[in-house]
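User: Mind token order:
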Amino acid sequence: MTEIVRLPVRTRPRFTWLLPLLFAAGSVLGSIWAGHGGKLFFLGALAGIWACSLVDTGTDATAWLLPTLLGGIPILLLLGHLLDRLHADVSLWIAVMAVICCVAGYLLMQGHTDLEGALAYHGSFLAYAVCAVQLGSYGATLVVLGIEAGRGRSIA
């Protein structure tokens, strides 16, 4: 009896490093442009903000940065590793992220009557942009994980 032996396909760690780096950059920029009371920082850094409940960080968004990074980077390393093991397409992830980023940015500004009111409330357009990019990366990661897992690809 003949047995077919398949050598493991070597994966390049694209998402393993892309997702944590994007999260770290977004969290640092989000702590600079945190929005009114840090609300946009809280939404954008959702993957790691849970770690702030474990330590006393106060009410300033810059004090939330270190626990957020320590809590979020391992989660995004794991999600990026899963995407790499599933051989996810980077161009698909970027396209989905762009769509979700635009939708998230639009929805973030819908709580205000006009653009000037929205910018006056949270301080700048950059606060909205950083939050929308982070939300877009989370959404794209979940959508692409679902698509690639649905294709029936093996993680081995």
